[in-house]
Each structure stands twice: as C-alpha cells, then as structure tokens.
Amino acid sequence: MVTIVPQWSGSVAICARHGLPVTFRTEVWFRSRPPVLLCVAVFVVVIAAGLPVVVPAARYLDDPDPELYLLLLFGGLFAGWLVHNVMLRQVSAPAWGFCDVCPALRSRLVGTAVTCFLLTVCSCALYVPFVLPEQVGGDELSPFQAIVRWAVAVAPGVFAIVGAVLLAFARWSVLAGGVAGKDGTVVLRRPVLEFVRAIAELGRAAEKA
C-alpha cells in the first residue's frame, strides 16, 4: 500500500492501476473503508437471511416462503449502507489520471449492471403469473412448479444485488484502486511500480522545496 497526497496525482502521467500513460483526468472522490464491525454485521445478516433463501431446509421462521427472508436481507443491507454513509470519510483528488483501459473497464461494468437491473424488472414481471396464483389458490405445487416459483421469487433480489455491486466497482475511486486515508490522504492498495516511483520523486522534490 502507498499513501499519497491527492494533489500530487495531477503531476503524475502514469495510470496507478495499469501503468499506462494517462489520457484524461477527472475529479475523484475517494471513500473510506467501512469499519470491521460493520462488515462483520453485514456478513452475519447475509448468512442469517440469505442462506434460508437458497436452502429451504435452513428456514427458521413460520413462513416457508423465501420472500420474507429477502425482505430481511435487503433491510439489513440497507441499514448497513446507511451506517456506512454516516461514518464515511471522503477525500477529493481534483485531477486524477486514468489510461484508456480504465473507461473501457468502467463501461463494461456499468453495462453489465444495467443488464442486471433490466433482468430484475423482467423477473419481477414473472412474479405475477408464477407466484401469485399459488399464493391465492390452495393447490399443492409439483416439484417442478416449486422450483420455478423459488427461482422467480429469488431472481429479482439476486440480479439487484449483483447490479448494485457492479455499480460500486464502477466508481472511479475503485478503478483507481484507492480509499480515503487519514488527514486527507489517499491510500492506494496495489499501485503499479512506475506510479510508486513517480510519487516518490514528487515526495523528494517536495522535501527539497
């Protein structure tokens, strides 16, 4: 990991992630990492509410349907998101440089996320003909019908979560590979060697000045 002053990024002509020449610059807001306890709490929520959705035998509530567990899962994830944003620290880098590979990667991530959100809408539309008749009527479902019902009920949640994760990875700060550090600095997790050398030269020049 490398800690840098964000203003120095405007003087570096090398992409921190790919080591290629910088072709454009933009302002990037780096976000702090979520606290460890929050990550543990979210993990517990995912296991407690997500596992019963996938494994019917693990359902511990009176309602055998997966919808209630999906609501618990989304509620827990939303609460974790709110807590993270309350505790969030942000650092602005006014002119962070990116190479040609970065926007292409971002476009692929955003395109895949949009596809997941469209599939979420489509799978929600299938909920009406496949799930509601079974809930209204009292007929027992065949094993195949039960599998189809389970897939239709779970699919919207899966697609929505995958889409949200992909959009999170498509942020410029994530593509740059950095997070907000303490005292207004930026911490890069795995920068290329050429970028580290350029930052070291800027640091030595600043010390001499």
TrEMBL record:
Keywords tagged on the record: Membrane, Transmembrane, Transmembrane helix
Highest taxon listed in the record's lineage: Bacteria
Record-annotated membrane-spanning stretches: 35-56, 68-88, 109-130, 150-170
Full protein name: Uncharacterized protein
